[in-house]
Write a structure and sequence with these properties.
With 442 residues, the protein is of the alpha/beta class. The chain has 18 helices and twelve strands. It has two domains: 176 residues, D-Maltodextrin-Binding Protein, domain 2, CATH 3.40.190; 212 residues, Periplasmic binding protein-like II (D-Maltodextrin-Binding Protein, domain 2, 3-Layer(aba) Sandwich), CATH 3.40.190.10. The relative contact order is 0.16.
Length: 442
């Protein structure tokens, strides 16, 4: 028995010495887990510091990555010039917002194909997105960009001005006839009050949406079903243009640019409280919440003869081919679809891009919509039309907005739309044929 106890004691002593020896081991530098090296991503944007909170949220998730926003003017020529400038300086940009014409960037070889990154992104695979979500940003099998944000728009209403003229807030199913009638009811030139803000938002948003809701065109921007031709010169669309022009020339509920200037341009800014209706999205709503001196709310766009739609813009976000940090830059793209980023965008007045019950429920909690027409917000999730153009050849040369502005606000004859539309239709077809012959590889 004594020998057995001695053996056990020796074994225990040996074990203690081994443990002590292990606990005093100092790991070599090569044994330590290497943290990622710091990375700064250059993002070309035309927003101010409004997105800083989102940049900070991203940095909190990926502490070694920071976003450096670089301000550019929101047009393709300025953005492309900045991309080239930074590359020549040896400090290439990693990401960019696109002002509209994705094919112009693709033609210059500036864009990385996002599809391989997204195909292996396990987090992204779990997300449910609306049907056709990427349709306007895919071209020849390449995914040129993703929607940075889904921007729905509404008719913004000065409820105080309506009440002053004895007009009740319309229902969410109001019609275009209701819209026009109310605009006339609240117009009082002696008081400098008008139904509509003198804003080309009505030309860019309301007019093409009416054409679609009345069944005169299948898509926004007056494009045909296949997105190959403009229908702006068709008789039904020309009648729509005359309809809005009569707000200026017949009803007097919206002022021309000349008349507006005569009255000090007060009616060009909805924040002045002198007009009843404006069109707004996430760029206007936070400012209204902070600064408006009157009671405001939103309404959906009116119902047409066939449908009731809402107008959406998907701001393209692209990964640049010249980026030296593509994997890290893709993390910023993927982050846009995480619930925390989606909720932040709802708080700012945008729609959730991801279909998720938690995000739908969050609309009721978002501070920006408290006391507002929340049902109108929810309607935009299901009845949206997205502005096309990102992958339509020559879309940046399609001058439809400027042409319509001249007709509605400057009194030009609508017949001028016919030859210009015919010329653009010919040009886009030629460009389409060129792209088909020289489709970019992989």
């Amino acid at each position: 028995m004594k020998n057995k106890h001695r053996v056990v004691g020796i074994l225990l002593l040996t074990l203690v010495l081994v443990l002590v020896s292990c606990s005093s081991y100092t790991p070599k530098p090569s044994d330590k887990i290497q943290e990622p090296a710091p990375v700064k991503l250059r993002l070309l944007t035309w927003a101010d510091d409004r997105y800083q909170q989102l940049y900070d949220m991203f940095h909190e998730r990926y502490p070694w990555i920071t976003i450096e926003p670089i301000m550019v003017q929101a047009n393709d020529s300025n953005i492309m010039a900045k991309i080239e400038e930074l590359e020549k300086a040896g400090t290439p940009a990693d990401l960019t917002w696109i002002a509209g014409d994705l094919l112009a960037y693709e033609q210059k070889g500036m864009l990385a194909n996002l599809k391989p990154y997204m195909d292996k992104d396990e987090s992204f695979q779990d997300k449910v997105l609306p049907d056709g979500y990427f349709d306007t940003m895919n071209f020849h099998g390449r995914r040129l960009a993703v929607p940075f944000v889904d921007v729905p728009m509404w008719i913004v209403v000065n409820k105080d001005l309506l009440a002053k003229h004895g007009v009740q807030m319309p229902s969410n199913t109001w019609s275009f006839d209701d819209f026009r009638y109310i605009a006339k009811q609240v117009t009082d030139p002696a008081a400098g009050e008008y139904g509509l803000t003198t804003s080309n938002e009505f030309v860019m948003r309301l007019l093409p949406l009416k054409a679609a809701a009345d069944g005169h065109v299948p898509n926004l921007a007056y494009m045909n079903e296949a997105m190959t031709k403009s229908l702006l010169d068709t008789p039904a669309v020309l009648d729509d243009v005359r309809w809005l022009t009569e707000f200026v020339t017949k009803d007097g509920s919206m002022l021309s640019w000349y008349r507006s200037a005569q009255e000090g341009d007060l009616v060009k800014n909805f924040m002045n409280g002198k007009t009843a209706f404006e069109i707004g999205g996430d760029w206007l709503l936070p400012r209204l919440q902070r600064e408006a001196k009157f009671n405001w709310d939103i309404l959906p766009f009116p119902r047409g003869q066939l449908n009731q739609y809402s107008f959406h813009i998907y701001g393209p976000l692209a990964l640049l081919s010249g980026s030296e940090h593509k994997e890290e830059a893709y993390k910023w793209i993927s982050f846009q679809f995480e619930l925390e980023a989606q909720k932040w965008k709802i708080d700012e007045g945008a729609n959730a891009s991801v279909i998720d019950p938690e995000l739908t429920d969050y609309i009721d909690q978002a501070p920006i919509w408290q006391g507002r027409n929340i049902e109108a917000v929810k309607m935009t999730k299901d009845n949206g039309l997205v502005l096309p153009g990102a992958t339509i050849p020559g879309f940046s040369d399609y001058n439809w907005v400027n042409m319509l502005n001249e007709i509605v606000f400057n009194g030009y004859d609508a017949k001028h739309l016919i030859p210009e539309t015919e010329a653009w239709n010919k040009k886009t077809q030629q460009l389409r044929e060129q792209w088909q012959k020289a489709a970019p590889k992989g």
